[in-house]
């Protein structure tokens, strides 16, 4: 069944296996949305219950958060360009843009670690209050996902170097791309409902 | 289903420019527009939904499909579930004190004063 479609579809869709893997990954992402929604709900319910620890408006810095957001948005863009290059058949373009995505992801992670260390030094740690527990679990889960994505991307870059563009490697790149864009979607909601609302209310 | 693949990644560039613009608008709305808090929250949440849609449609190729249906329908279901979980939790756990914008003898914002009240309730332990 895959034979007659090979010309019309990009390489990652060219095999039945590849198509099933991509659909399966979308199902995983749908489940991830449910996971993050429970964390958002927990955070929203515990909002404001800071007990004796600092209030979020005292600690959140608009500058840092905007830089992190722009880094992640840009990395999503470069990841999209990587997929675009892959579909053009350019292995070099794909690897360059993917490596750039990786660098941006690492700098995002650096900012997030700096931010967490700063908050803990100001007396807002995981165990300080219900609010900060909700905050660290939500943003921390996102940070863990970014960390996993970085490790995953490094592994895929190594495979691309070794094997070039095949139906298997393009499918893997496409899926890690979906994952990376998805993390950006989650971050948009963290940026809005955690940081922006936290600074306003 | 698959659009003609253009040499120049115009979709990505437009999506990127839009998402940066929307982020700046959201930050300005929240930090220096001076709108009432409830309007700020409604505005920036709406902007976030638009941005998420940009990611899904312009970057993630959500309308593409292989042998099966395109994945946008199950992602739509997932977002509905997410909205129900978040709104339902807030309704069950917080309804009744987060919407109190009335009292004037506390501090500034409507939200913070109601949270103070809720903390006083919990001070027993």
TrEMBL record, chain A:
Primary location class: membrane
Role, per record: Catalyzes quinol oxidation with the concomitant reduction of oxygen to water.
Protein name: Quinol oxidase subunit 3
Intracellular or extracellular location(s): Cell membrane
PROSITE patterns: COX3 (PS50253)
Gene Ontology biological process: aerobic electron transport chain; ATP synthesis coupled electron transport
Family: Belongs to the cytochrome c oxidase subunit 3 family.
GO terms under cellular component: plasma membrane
EC numbers for this chain: 1.10.3.-
Catalytic activity, reaction form: 2 a quinol + O2 = 2 a quinone + 2 H2O
Spans traversing the lipid bilayer: 21-45, 65-83, 95-114, 134-158, 178-198
Heme-copper oxidase subunit III family profile domain boundaries: 1-199
Pfam families linked to this entry: COX3
InterPro entries: Cyt_c/ubiquinol_Oxase_su3, Cyt_c_oxidase-like_su3, Cyt_c_oxidase_su3-like_sf, Cyt_c_oxidase_su3_a-hlx, QoxC, Ubiquinol_oxase_su3_dom
Single Gene Ontology MF annotation: cytochrome-c oxidase activity
Bilayer disposition of the protein: Multi-pass membrane protein
Lineage: superkingdom: Bacteria
From TrEMBL, chain B:
Catalytic activities: 2 a quinol + O2 = 2 a quinone + 2 H2O
EC annotation from Swiss-Prot or TrEMBL: 1.10.3.-
Gene Ontology molecular function terms on file: cytochrome bo3 ubiquinol oxidase activity; oxidoreductase activity, acting on diphenols and related substances as donors, oxygen as acceptor; proton transmembrane transporter activity
One biological process term in Gene Ontology: electron transport coupled proton transport
Keyword entries, A-Z: Cell membrane, Membrane, Oxidoreductase, Transmembrane, Transmembrane helix
Keyword Isomerase attributed: no
GO cellular component, one term: cytochrome o ubiquinol oxidase complex
Group of enzyme by EC: oxidoreductase
Residues annotated as transmembrane: 12-31, 37-62, 74-97
Chief localization: membrane
Pfam family, one: COX4_pro
Places the protein is found: Cell membrane
Membrane topology term: Multi-pass membrane protein
Region (Disordered): 102-125
Superkingdom, natural source: Bacteria
Sequence similarity: Belongs to the cytochrome c oxidase bacterial subunit 4 family.
Family matches, as PANTHER family: CYTOCHROME BO(3) UBIQUINOL OXIDASE SUBUNIT 4 (PTHR36835:SF1)
Protein role: Catalyzes quinol oxidation with the concomitant reduction of oxygen to water.
Protein name per its UniProtKB record: Quinol oxidase subunit 4
Provenance organism: Salinicoccus halodurans
